[in-house]
């Protein structure tokens, strides 16, 4: 079964308090989403494969290790874009793909509208980002697209995870680990995470 990692880090906890606050405006919200994503990507990259390399220092030859896989960051549009910059800070050579999915507000089912991925995506370890894992329908579909393109290693990063979404991913994609900044208690009747932080996309882009 896939792993669910929920951060206990004090920096992330403090930033989550600001993100959840309904008074936090779009500029600050966007900045904090990026910071939390960067901190979470530090945890999510912990198990990346390494290879031995020799480096000539000014003094001697040092035996070092570097990451032994090509990387890609794939945000789920729109809200996942808010996390991209944070991941890029730590993985500046990663290629970036985009998957466009929105959740129909009535059926709560994902609707696809865009997909553009690096040509060699199947050779890459893919960090799939979306701030909200609610029912899990969106993430489940996005992971399915990536697997259809031949991607073998996918790591899902979100800011908030709900039990329903985690269960769906663990059942549908047991090979995909989930990294979350917080794990909330449930969904409300509109499929919003409770206590949550509201509509992540609208808060990042200031559309409401
Ligand atoms: O787990 P689920 O129940 O599928 O819900 C989560 C999805 O809903 C939100 O996107 P939204 O549809 O609001 O699109 P947006 O990113 O364009 O705001 C969120 O960013 C996820 O993509
Ligand atoms: O709480 C939620 C659930 C889905 N999408 C959001 O943006 N927020
Ligand atoms: Mg939204």
From TrEMBL:
GO cellular component, one term: cytoplasm
InterPro entries to which the protein is assigned, alphabetical: PRTase-like, PRTase_dom, Upp_B, UPRT, UPRTase/APRTase
Residues holding 5-phospho-alpha-D-ribose 1-diphosphate: 78, 103, 130-138, 199
Catalytic activity of the protein: UMP + diphosphate = 5-phospho-alpha-D-ribose 1-diphosphate + uracil
Activation/inhibition comment: Allosterically activated by GTP.
One Gene Ontology biological process: uracil salvage
Coiled-coil residues: none
Any GO MF annotation of the entry: magnesium ion binding
Presence of keyword Glycosyltransferase: yes
Cofactor: Mg(2+)
Enzyme superclass (EC): transferase
EC code(s) of this entry: 2.4.2.9
Matching NCBIfam families: PRK00129.1 (NF001097), upp (TIGR01091)
Function (record text): Catalyzes the conversion of uracil and 5-phospho-alpha-D-ribose 1-diphosphate (PRPP) to UMP and diphosphate.
Protein name: Uracil phosphoribosyltransferase
Source organism: Anaerotignum lactatifermentans DSM 14214
Lineage: Bacteria, Bacillati, Bacillota, Clostridia, Lachnospirales
Gene transcribed to yield this protein: upp
């Amino acid at each position: 079964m896939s792993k669910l990692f929920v951060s206990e880090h004090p920096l992330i906890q403090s930033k989550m308090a600001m993100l959840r606050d309904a008074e936090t405006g779009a500029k600050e919200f966007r900045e904090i989403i990026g910071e939390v994503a960067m901190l979470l990507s530090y945890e999510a990259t912990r198990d990346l494969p390494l290879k031995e390399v020799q480096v000539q220092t000014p003094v001697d030859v040092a035996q070092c290790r570097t990451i032994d896989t090509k990387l890609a960051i794939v945000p789920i549009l729109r809200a996942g874009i808010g996390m991209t910059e944070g991941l890029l800070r730590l993985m500046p050579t990663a290629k970036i793909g985009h998957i466009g999915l929105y959740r129909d507000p009535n059926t709560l089912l994902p609707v696809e509208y865009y997909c553009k991925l690096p040509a060699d995506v199947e050779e890459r370890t893919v960090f799939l980002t979306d701030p909200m894992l609610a029912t899990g329908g969106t993430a489940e579909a996005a992971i399915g697209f990536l697997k259809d393109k031949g991607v073998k290693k996918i790591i899902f990063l979100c800011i908030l995870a709900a039990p329903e979404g985690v269960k769906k991913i663990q059942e549908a994609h047991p090979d995909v680990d989930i990294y979350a900044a917080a794990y909330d208690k449930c969904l409300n009747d509109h499929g919003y995470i409770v206590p949550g932080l509201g509509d992540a996309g609208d808060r990042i882009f200031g559309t409401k």
